[in-house]
Amino acid sequence: MSGSRRCALLRGDILGFAPPLVMARAEAEEIVGIVKQAVYEVAERNLVAAG
Where are the chain's structural domains? Predict the structure, then answer.
């Protein structure tokens, strides 16, 4: 997926998405996988920081 076709808006604790109007299933799955990994990483950092 090209960089110009994906867009995520991040504001505080809200994640907004503006995907293209048409995309392949594989592209949607890639977006979900990337976001899932990012959420897990942030959650893990916050758990470690909280002690």
Answer: 21-51
Q: What whole-number distance in Å separates Cα of residue 42 and Cα of residue 25?
A: 26
The answer to whether 37 and 45 are in contact (CB under 8 A) is: no
1-51 confidence digits (pLDDT tens): 445 445 555 556 777 778 788 999 999 999 899 999 998 998 898 888 877
Q: How many CA atoms lie within 13 A of 4 on its CB side?
A: 0
The number of angstroms, rounded, from the C-alpha of 49 to the middle of its chain's C-alpha atoms is 22
Q: What residues contact 24, with CB distance under 8 A and at least 6 apart? A: none
Query: What are the pLDDT digits (tens) for 26-38?
Result: 999 998 999 999 9
